Structures are given as C-alpha cells and as structure tokens.
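Appendix B, Record 12. Input sequence as logged:
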Amino acid sequence: MKKREDIHKILIIGSGPIIIGQASEFDYSGTQGCKALKKLGYEIVLVNSNPATIMTDPDTADITYIEPLNLNRLTEIIKKERPDALLPNLGGQSGLNLCSELANAGVLDKYGVKVIGVQVDAIERGEDRIEFKKTMDSLGIEMARSMVAYTVDEAVKIANELGYPVVVRPAYTMGGAGGGLVYNIDELKTVVSRGLKASMVGQVLIEESILGWEELELEVVRDASGKMITVCFLENIDPLGVHTGDSCCTAPMLTISQDVQDELQRQAYKIVETIEVIGGTNVQFAHDPVSGRILVIEINPRTSRSSALASKATGFPIAYVSAMLAAGLDLSDIPCGKYGTLDNYVPDSDYVVIKFARWTFEKFKGAEDKLGTQMRSVGEAMSIGKTFKEAFQKAIRSLETGRYGLGLIAKLESKSKEELLNMLHIATSERFFIIYEAIKKGATVDEICELTKMKAYFINEIKELALEEEKIAFFKGTLPPVQYIKEAKLNGFSDKYLSILLDLPEEQIRDRRISAGIKQTWCSIHVSGSQESKYYYSTYHLDKSDITKVSLENSQKQKVMILGGGPNRIGQGIEFDYCCVHAAFALKEMGFETIIVNCNPETVSTDADTSDKLYFEPLTLEDVLSIYEFEKPLGVIAQFGGQTPLNLSAELKANGVNILGTTPETIDLAEDRDLFREKMDKLEIPMPESGMAVNVEEALHIAKRIGYPVMVRPSYVLGGRGMEIVHDDGGMEIYMDAAVGVTPDRPILIDRFLNHALECEADAISDGTNGYVPAIMEHIELAGIHSGDSACAIPSLSISKKNIDTIKKYTVSIANELGVRGLMNMQYAIENDTVYVLEANPRASRTVPLVSKVCNINMVKLATEIIMNPYTGKESPVVNLKDKQFSHYGVKEAVFPFNMFHEVDPLLGPEMRSTGEVLGMAECFGEAFYKAQEAAGSNIPLTGTVLISVSDKDKAEVVEVAKGFHQCGFKIMATGGTYDLIIANNIPAEKIFKLYQGRPNILDGVTNGEIDIIVNTPIDKKGAHDDSYIRKAAIRGKVSYFTTIAAAKAVIAGIKQMKDNQVAGILSLQEIHRNIK
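Logged structural output:
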C-alpha cells in the first residue's frame, strides 16, 4: 500500500441539508469516505450542516463541525484546524462549489491546503460550461450545439439561432436547478433569469433540444496511475427531456448494443483522463437510435446520485474506493475476493436493477405533476430481480404509495383509451401506470412509443404484464391453476396484487403458492474490495447452476431483524435511516447478528457493512415475511424505520412475527383518539377537545360541538399527510369529500385548534416503568405549523420551569401507561399556561438525531438496549440517566423545495413540506438561530430594508417587530393597515402598495432589489392566496422571508446578536459535548 505520507489531516466537506437534487446519497458517500480514510490512519475533520446524518455523528470523523457551508465558516475552520488536505468530491455539488470558492479566495494557498481527489482546475473543466465545451472540442467529442449566456438578451439571441425548443442549463448547479426546456421567448426569459440566479457564476448554457434521444450514463473510476474501470452502465428508460433523477433506469443497459456501449466507454475514458479526476465520475450521454449519433451531455467530477445507485446496483463502493484512491492508493493496491484486485473489476451482473423515483406532488397544492429537465423527486427505490419484469414490479411495490402493481387504479380505469393516450403527451409521475392502462384498453406499442419516445422493448415488457393480468383476472373469485400462479410470480406479481385482482384474501394466495412449492430463492451480490462481504435479493427464477444462490449459513449468534424506512419522501426522511443504522451498531455491540431490510439505494443502512446481512427488498408483508421465515430471527424491530414498518407491524404480528420493543397494540392505541383520550382522562392530562368522523355529517356534528377553527387529519400518517386547519362548515365539507379517500378504512381525526399556542415536543426513552426526557424542543413557530417544518430550539427559551417539569412528568407517565419500550415522541401545546397533549408517537421520531447531537446522548443505542433486555438480562440504562446542564443552544431549521415548485405558495401549515433540515449551534440563541438560517441558505442581512405586511390577527404584535427592526437600523416599508399601526407608534416607515393598489408596488420593490427581508403573515382564509405573489417573489429574488411573527422575532434576536458581535469562536461538536455538565 502506498498511501500519501505528505498529508496527515484531511478536511471533508459534506453536502448540507437534504434538498431535491442532493439527498441522502451524500451522507452515504461522506460516511464511506470517513471510514476509508480513518482506516488508512488519517485524522479526519468533517464539516456539514445536516444534523440528521450518520456523517455528522461525533464518532464518524475525529473532529466534526456542524456549521453553515459557506466561504466564511470554512475559512474559520481551516484557520483553526490547519488540515493538510481537502477532499471535496464526496459532498455533492456543495462540496465542489465550496472548494472552488476557497481556491479562488486564496484560502487554500494561504493555509497550505492541498486538494485531493479532484483538482480545482478539473472542477472548472467539468462544471464550467465554456471550459467543458472547449475540452470536448479538443478531444473531438461531440456535444449538442450550444452557446453560453450571461444575460437574458444574450440567451434570446442564441435561442433564435438554434431554433426552439432549447434547453437551459445553469453552471455549477445540481438537480437541474434553475434550468428547463423552453418552447418560446417568454418561457426562455423566465427560465434564464431564474437560471442565472441559481448559477454560482451567473452563467447558463443554451442548448439545442435533443428531446426523445436515449439518455445513457457511465460510472467511471480512475486512479492516479491513469487506470480506469467502468463500474456500471445505466440506461434511462425515459428519453432525454426527463431529468435523470426523475427518470426510471436500469442497470445493466438492456437495449443498447455492445458496439455502442464500447464507444460510450471509449469516450468516457478520454474525458475522465483529460479532466484528471481521481475517484468516481459520472458521465452522461445522449444517443440517437435513428442516426447513431452520440453526444456527451455533461459530467459530474464527483460522487453523484447515480454513483450511490451504481454502488448498490453492482456492489462496488464507489465513494469508499474514491477516498482510498484520493489518498494515493491505486486500484491494483485494493484487494478483492472476487477479482483479486480492483483493477481487474468488470461489471458482470446476471441480474437486473431498476431505479424508480418517488415524488410527493400531493404535498404541494397547485404543483403541476410534470417531469422535465429540472428534478422534482424527493427519493427513490431500487429493486433487484433476474428479469426486467420481476425487478420492475418489485420497484413499484417498493415505492410506498399503496400500489402493489401497475394496474387496478380506479382513476385510470375509468378513462378511455383516447383520454389515456392524451395524458401521455407530457411525462408525469403516473406515466407507467397510464401506459399499462392504455395497453389494457387496446393502445398499440407503436402508438405509445410515438408519444413517449420510450423504447419498444420496455413497452412490450409492460404489454406482456398487462396481458398476463387479463389471463389471471379470468379466474376472479377462485384460485387459478398452479402454473398461472407460478408464471405470475416469475414476472414479479405480488401476492397482494393477485389477491386484489382475484378478490381473495392475500393469505389464501400465499398458502396456495407455498403448498405448491412456489417460493423465492435468495441470491447474493459480492461487495467489491472485500474478501467475501455480500448482500441479498430474492427471485423466483430458480437456476440450479447459479453460484450466487445462497443457502442459510448456521450462525452461532441470535439474529435480530431491523426494518428500514423505504424511499425518502417528505415526512419520512434520512432521520429514520439514522435510527436503523444506530440500532444495527448497538445490536452488533451486544453480540447479536443484525439483518436489515430496505430498498433505498441512497442510504447508509443499505451499505453492506452496516449490518451483518442486508436484504435489498421491498418493505411489504410478503417480502418481509419470507425473509423472516428464511432467517428465523429472535424478532423484528419496527419502531426505528418511521411509518413504513409501523404500518406493517400489526399484520406481521398476526402472522406470527415477534415484534420487539413497543407492541403494535400500543401503537394502535396511540392512533385511536377515543382510546388515547380515555388513557389521558385516567392520568388527568388535558387534551384539546376532539372527535373521530367517518363521514361529513359526523364531522360537522363534531365541529359544531368543539367550535371552529379545528385541525383535521387522517389517522396513521406521517408528515401531517392530509392535515389542515378548517375554519367553517364549507371548508369541512370540502375536506371530508377529498380526504376520506386518503385512508378508506380509518377515521378522520378532528381536534380543537389551539390558536396562538406555543408548541413544543419531547423525545423520551422508556423501559415501560422508567422514562427519561433528554430535552424539550420549543417550536419557534406557533401551533398550526407541522413540527417537521417549524424551527425549534434546544434547550427551550420561554417555557417556565413549572411547565417543563409538567411536560417531563406527563411524558414519563404516558410512556409508562402505554407500556412503551424504546423511543417515544410527544407533541404538546401550551395555551394560557396550560400544557395540552396533542399526540403521542410511540416510536422513533425525526428529531432523534437532532436531540442526540445537541444533548450528546445516543438515544437509539439506549433504546435498543432496552428492547433487547428480555434477551440480555441487563439492567435498564434509563435508571442511571440524569438531567444535563447545557452551555449552548441548538436551533433546527427546515429546508424547503419551493425553488423547484415555482407555482406553489411557500406557506407553512400543518402538512409537512420540508425535505431536510440544518442545525445552528452557539452559546446564545440569537447566534444559533442566525447560523441555522445561514445554513438553510437564507443569509439574513444585518442592514437594509425590511418589508412588513401582516394579517389582522398579527397586528397586535407587529409594533414590537417593527421596533426591533428599527433598533437594528433597518429602514421599514409596510402596507396599508400595518403601515398605519407602525406610524401611530412613532416608528418611521414608508408606505408601499400591494399588487392591486398601484405602482410602485411590493413586486417592483422585490424585483428591483430594494427589499432585503420580508415579513408577511398570510390572512387566515381568503387572503391566503391574495398575497402569495409576495412570497413567490421572495423565493425568485432570493430574499429572506418569514411568514410568522415568531420567526420575525427570532430573526431580530439573531441580527442583534451578530451586530453586537457577541459571537463565540467556532467550536467542534466534540468541544461542545465536552462542555455539557
């Protein structure tokens, strides 16, 4: 091994919060990088702003900074830590952009920091559109005709030359942010002005449209000696025009000839060699199947979203290997049980992998379900099978959308063939389901290919599934002959789907299948760079000669199975993956063999060495049961993976599965409002008046008894799905009409809405008789904003000692009463000095990583020890836990994808809409809040002009806000009644018109850059739409905006703190933890 000896301390930049285009795959790659470099003996300094990741755990790196990812903060850290080297290509686009900024600002030269993995000029050659084009021209590699623009006028001129439609691609961005496909000059002007703002260097590429071509990707790894290997060939099923993050794709390529694949590899190697990346590079190509032309679209000189997918699809850990190569090793230095050394690696899989994206359009009222060159998915599922059909159907049921196959969707079944074909003109998240239904209605493969530009091979495969479904449906009400069941299982049909199709219980299908000997077998995928590590997938294709087929090894250890969270989506994010990973670590430490089941390729839980065994499988009853029956573990832990495993736990228990820790009955009790209220009455704990309704009449009756406004929501959901504040009977009727469909067999919950109440939450660890609450999180926004979207502070700021004691007492007594064994999250509201319980969640919550890091307590480890107590006989750790004294504040701020949904009003409410979160930590609240805003991308100016426009209900507090901004030296602009009130209290202000009142108005002020901060609280009902243009303009103009009075007050505290310069030096997480008493 010839690792570099000239460097000892390496700085790794993380990717920041989970956003569309940059998700948990970078937690996976950063964690892998830390692991590889620590193994080589280097000291690791990590910087990231995301508290929800394994990467920012105090044990992952030697020194961890949870700080905003920007030039100033990084400069401070480099000045303090003096690293020898910087590895930027594991932190997504954020890592690369920051590396460029640090180099351009002279920081790296000043402190003698070497860049490893990818050179600064290589980032420019890969990311800067002009430099990349020059490099391609010099290599004789063809690109789409294009020119670079720095202004809207230049873009208009270029588009006229190229002819519409054209594609707009901003430089130095990810997820297609700010870009798009435009068909006319008006669209062009809008998208280019957006793209110039999104680009770090104010540069966009205007490119000829090659819509409908095939989009193909290669993952290439290169070492310092120049040796290159292709890890994976990815074929996008969707044609060019749908962003690769949204496109469904396969590995290996299924319809691309060997000649074309060889040519793609030849070109990719030329590019990677010239750019001189060490480690992984993603190269994207367009191929015209008619003329045979190949064009390079772009490269990512870093680990990317596709490299996480390629790693999990092939077993080749790209980020881990990239880090080792950056440290000086060559591919030939890394031993591998299968290939000898990694320079001999070839992608030789005998299986098919499908990636299917997961969208949450339903979370964004007014969002168009339309796929284009700007990414809109929030997560993805990956499935593995021996054939396309088997893998594709597994992918559908991995998505957690309540669908178990391609058909039986009422809203599509009711449409005619013509209507369905008409829906295919524009790509949407429903496109494959529409294709399936259209085929059943008689559409031809040619008609569909013409409309979608997808390859006939894929449409034919879907057609064969549709025809098979029709054959099976013939037997409705009875069990079909065994050969039909066998054929269906070979082609990926799930038991659940067959049960719906045949109108029979799922159990009956399963029993018939098993009695006929139709069972899946398990095959393994070797982990490259390891001696014999592997992970597993199921298939019904039983080939006796298959060497990857596995039989159960006899383990001396007792086994425990952990159910993961499935694909990332809003409400169910990386926090639950964090919990599953820590549970696996804790179980290993206790001497158990760990088994993880999950289907998310982006996460640390699906890293083969997180657990002893990884099953890359959908989280459905059928799939989990078959693994359980095969492995025969002690039991299953369901409480760490969020709602996905919880929704399964009752059915699993009914099928004889031992659910470890908190029982499914306890979880049901917490969801059943009537039963839960009975428990609260018994404990004499107040709750807001509430009721449960299954129809409109019941709902109206309950609302009349309670009094409006009321909070309504379905039961058994996560992320406030379908939750709304309803103000009158009309609103209730509309909600009930729409919402009963959300959970057909489960009632709607109706609660009195606590107006102007302070909301807070507590995470607890309980052993069933003792409980411990590490901290109470105070929400900065008032009641009515989903806890996942509200900023929150630890420790609490304004809750009295009496109420804190009450909250702790309530939490422990509720945990004991419910018999919680493990973790529990409690939501409270305080109104008129009374603490009300809003809800109990007897499971891990999304705040567990946050509390663990701020309070220096490994909550999941402690909870896992409690869960396993009956088997280990050890004493419960809860009895020895004591309250701690903090000398710091942690402020969590949510991060939203509104920049990807320009048509949506960026308002906060009871339904969760954030994709990720950041953490600001400091000795005082103001600085911690300011840092959290900075980390979330909202750089609050310390001087300038603030626009204040608030609803009537907030007028009482607006004077205090105006006074605060005035004291901070801000000029104030205000509208109508807000202006009158501010002036009446002798605070200087300038009046500005609303949109419909005249010019110059708010929109002019924002567009002209005259406004630096916006405080705009929406009017409860009708006005909620009237002023949405203010908030949309703020996002377009990148102006800091706040939609609640509470947030505005916190902003003032932050500005005052920063202006008074009472700012402590920058501290690592480990230093902060040492100061906790």
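The first strand starts at residue 9 and ends at 13.
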